[in-house]
Each structure stands twice: as structure tokens, then as C-alpha cells.
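Notes from hallway chat w/ T.B., transcribed later so I don't forget. T.B. wanted the structure written out for a chain they're using in a teaching module, and asked if we could keep both sequence and C-alpha cells in one place. Agreed to drop them here.
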Amino acid sequence: MSNNPATGVLDKDGLDALVQVLAARGRTVIGPTVRDGAIVLAAIGSADDLPFGWGSEVEAGRYRLVPRADGAVFAHSAGPQSWKTFLHPQREKLWSAERSPDGALTVTENPPEQPSYAFLGVRPCDLRAIAIQDRVLTGGRYPDRGYRTRRTGAFLIAAECTEPGATCFCVSMGGGPAADSGFDLALTEVLDEAGHRFLVRAGSEAGRDILADVPHGPADAETEYAARAAVDAARDRMGRAMPPVDLRTLMGESLEADRWDDVAARCLTCGNCTMVCPTCFCTTTEEVTDLTGDHAERWLRWDSCFDGDFSLLHGGPVRASARSRYRQWLTHKLSTWYEQFGSSGCVGCGRCVTWCPVGIDITEEAAALYEERAGRPRHEQPKETRR
């Protein structure tokens, strides 16, 4: 058994030391930082790059960066990116081909990059999302080699949620604000009369090894109690909730619901929800060539089931209407994902609600389908189904 520490307390200098230790070991540290009016994920060189004193206000179709007087660093909701941006990037070259003057064709496979990432500030909902993408992209007969390469070397530092946003609903999806597994280190931010500090827990041998090199104090009872209390309080302050029903059954029994017409009248089929979703994984391939035709490349890029060509077959697309495309996305996310991968495809992060340009709310749509199936107007439903 390792003698490396499993818990400790970091101050702000200790947080910076953590970044420096990771960088010294050759890791590219990715964390939240303020840019372009939002908290985004990017490479950071020190803790000074983190969003100390910044939070966010979110609602359906709305995101605003707001200053905080308490100097908190992790008191913000999920931004427009998720960690799949780095593990499952938007574009990836698969191979290139060159035609020589004598007509010979040489095809060169493009090996996947092997970055050594350290992700700092991974929310518990995103930990679940990474675990889901692990099953999707590394399981089965044809694993995604690029994803597996990037994921294998990634070091995950969770940041437990102490201040959920108005579009968060992770608890109703079986998750929560606590980081229970899937991390190397977990941080819980505490701000009280005793100061600004972070309870840190190791969740792997690699995490213990890193923590041993970072200056930290012992995990005292006061900090541990404050950290647990903050996370427990967050569990009761979710901004939204799914209706308390079996969503798999609900989706299966609602394929012909009138509600699909209602949402189709609002949906722009822009695909924003799939782009910001931390678990959506669909891709397509495209070939590009130069003007001479002597050089060609094949690229893998993100695709969306909202794209009209996504289901294109000879004779036209299978899902030509906004109704059919939104229904495909929602029923797959909440129901048929189980049949493929053994879990829901939704972790309750709320990004699809926040970043939908017309404010379509996945929890509201599920509640409306439930109400239509029950045959009762919405105002007669229990309050928890309407949040």
C-alpha cells in the first residue's frame, strides 16, 4: 500500500503549485479561464489563469459572465465547452494521399496525437460524461483509436459542485454535485471565516503521487465538514429536474405525441445542443484535395443528427423534418442509448438548455411529454415535474 497521502488541504498557492507540478511532469494543464465574455476551457500556465472572482448566470438560451465578491474560482456553471473538445476533437486528420509524377499513389496514415493532458476543474457531471464516452468510443468491436490514445494519458482533477446553475439537473439524472469516482484528484472549494482553501482527495495512485509533490496541509475536520456541507447543500439547489418517471418508457410511448410538433415549431435544427453536449459523439468523414488533385486528405469531424444530410440515403433524408430530428435526438439521449451503451446519454449538465438560441429546455420537453401521456394539463402536475 502506498504511503502517499490520500487527502489534504490546499490554499491558493497550493493550487498554483499543483499546476506547476503537473507542468513539470510534461503535462498540458487545461482548465477554466475567462475569455470572450465566458468561462472557457483552455491551456493554463498558472493558477492566475483560473477564473478567480468570476461566476456565471444561466437560463434557457442565456449565459452571462458575472463578477463575484468572494473570489471563488469554481463557482460557475458549465460553459460552452466540455472536455470532449480535447478527448474527441472537432476535427482530426485520418490520412493523406500523394500522387507522384509517375502516377504512383502513396497513402500515409496520420497517427493520433499523444498529448499528456491534465484536466483541472472537471465537474462531476462531466466525469460521468467522460465515463459514458469511454464506453461509446473505446468499447465494442471498433474502438476509436484517437480517443483511446488521448484518454489513456489524461489526468483528471475534479471540482465538486457547490453552486449549481439554473439549468443544472444532474441529481434527477442519477448523478449529483459530488465526485464519487473516475478522478485522479478531487477538489472541493471552501470559503468561510477560516479562509479560502480546497479540500483535496486522491482517487488513484497517480493522484496520490502528484499530491505527495504538492505542498499542502492536513485535511482537518473543520474543512472536511464545510466541504461536505457545501456539496450536500448544492444537491438540494438544482435549478431544474426531469419528471420523476421512467424516461425510457416515456420516450417509447411518446413517439406519436403532439408535443413534437410544438417543439419543431421552435427548433432551428442548428445542432447547438449536440455541439455543446458532453456525450454526443456522432462524426462523419470528408475528403479534401488541392487544385492539382495530387494531394488529398481524409478528415474526421463532428456531425449532428440535426443536420439534414445526417440520415441522407438514396432518394433523400430519412429524417427530413425538424420534428423527426428533435425526436431522434431526445429519444436516443434519454432512451435508446441504454440499448446501445447501458446508460442514459444525458448527465444533466444543462448545456443544451443554456446554449439553445431559442431556449428549448430538455426537462420541459420531457415534462410536457409526460403530461400529454397522462392526459392532464400541466398545471395539475406535481411541482417537481415542472421545474
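Follow-up for T.B.: The first helix runs from residue 12 to 24. Might be a good example for the class.
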